[in-house]
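Appendix B, Record 12. Input sequence as logged:
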Amino acid sequence: MPMEDHRLRAFCLIVEMRSFSKAAEVKFMTQSAMSHLIKNLEDELGMRLLIRRGKNVLPTSAGSVFYEHAKRILGAYKAMEEDMYHLVSKIKGTLSIGASATAATYLLPQVFYDFSRSYSEARLHLSVSNTEKVINELHQGKIDLGIIEGNINDGKISFQEIADDEIVLIASDNNPLTKKTAITPQDVISQPFIMPEAGSGTREIIDDFLRTLKIDLQELKIIMTLGDPELLVRMVQSGLGIAFVSKWSIFKTLKEGSIRIVSVSGKKLCRKIYLISLEKEPATLVARTFKKFVHGYRFFIPF
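Logged structural output:
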């Protein structure tokens, strides 16, 4: 059996995702290869571990017992590797990070590049989703660290600020709002809006900000919601509507002159970007090293 038995990890993924196809995607395998792997495991044990119920794949009673033992075994393998690497002071192993789209697109590429140059034996795995899903993945043990924006109302999570950000309202260069020095809440209500997806840290902050302006969210003309910050900026460029976005996402587009920032009653909307973990000191050496590395990192300020 190898250091981390791929059969155990594959089985656990299927149970957690309730799907052969989704688990196969994560493992970069075909669905048939995944099914064959589990069949070999069941044949070896001489018992059925998984059953289909409608569209979901669920563990049998034997499968549930096997899952609990498999999780403990995988955890023990990880702890053993960690102890071995620690003995020789090697920063080695896989670091799984979940990040919001803004952080993943605009902050992490340079961080990952510099970290990999310093710690070439560390392997980085990045999953991109909204803030709500990143927090859930952290609790489920699917990631070691998260990088998110927005309010953190979970007392079980340890967090540290790693960067500042500002959310600005943008419009295409030919939108009438760009001719105004400052726009009013009524101006905001009159425009078609493109919004970040619900569950994202950006959306939560925007909703709170609009409430402080006494704007009824039900009155907004939301014509589209998007999870991709770059695509959201492109939609504004096309003249489809206005949107609140991170300053990080408009650095190049603003220089092109195809969009403009419009000021809402002279108010600023600032936020922090956080690195989060379940413990103040993450369990693995590579995670602790990355946390320390990011804490002292100097991020490029867009403008």
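The two ends are 53 Å apart (CA to CA).
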